[in-house]
Specification:
Largest sheet: 11 strands, mixed
Distance between the termini: 13 Å
Order of helices and strands: EHEEHHHEEHHEEHEEHEE
Oligomer: single chain
Shape: globular
Helix content: 25-40%
Length: 232
Amino acid sequence: MCDKKIYKYELHCHTSEVSRCGTVSGEQAAKMYKEAGYDGLVITDHYSPMTFSPLTVCRPQKAADFYMSGYESAKREADENFTVLLGMELRYYATANDYLVFGVTEDFLKNSGNLMAMYPRRFYSLAKKNGLIVVQAHPFREMMIRTNPKYLDGCEVYNGKQKSESESQNAMNWAEENNMKIRTSGSDFHRPSNLAKGGIATTRKIKTNEDLIEVLASGDFSIIKDSKITGG
């Protein structure tokens, strides 16, 4: 990788427009990542019971418009050299697990119904029909339960908000034990102190969802861990 240009992308980023725990707007987050030397980011706001009111969930277009507001804000900073893509951090009703979903589009949001009511098996089937990748976020964080790997494409092996190195090592061990080929890293950006702690580094420029899916599926990337590029 050292003989070619290395591109860095954040895969776990929240905005204040959508995620109640976010403190930075999408536009400002994108600007901060630009300044930190990243080449793009995926906006993975919380798609969870804490995000939507019951009335909003029943109105797909309104729900999609609201959910995309942080992404649309971040896109103001997108240009030829900086990519902004739409993703999500999905949580089902009455559960604590979170799932990072890559390849999300506006049409998917509008036409797929209430994703929080689907649960792993049903959602994974829908994701595969739409060419998405599903990764369990921070699987060894307190209160998390590891999902059946048959309903996952991989797991997040490094999270910028983890409390100990053991969380990362346990996630890596779990990925290896279950032959998960997609092992991601993300800063879990909510506030300025979370900036640029995680992400992926690749020699392949990512401009579209299709590019991102190809890079993740191929494994042609290294993870960024504690702001440093590692071998994975």
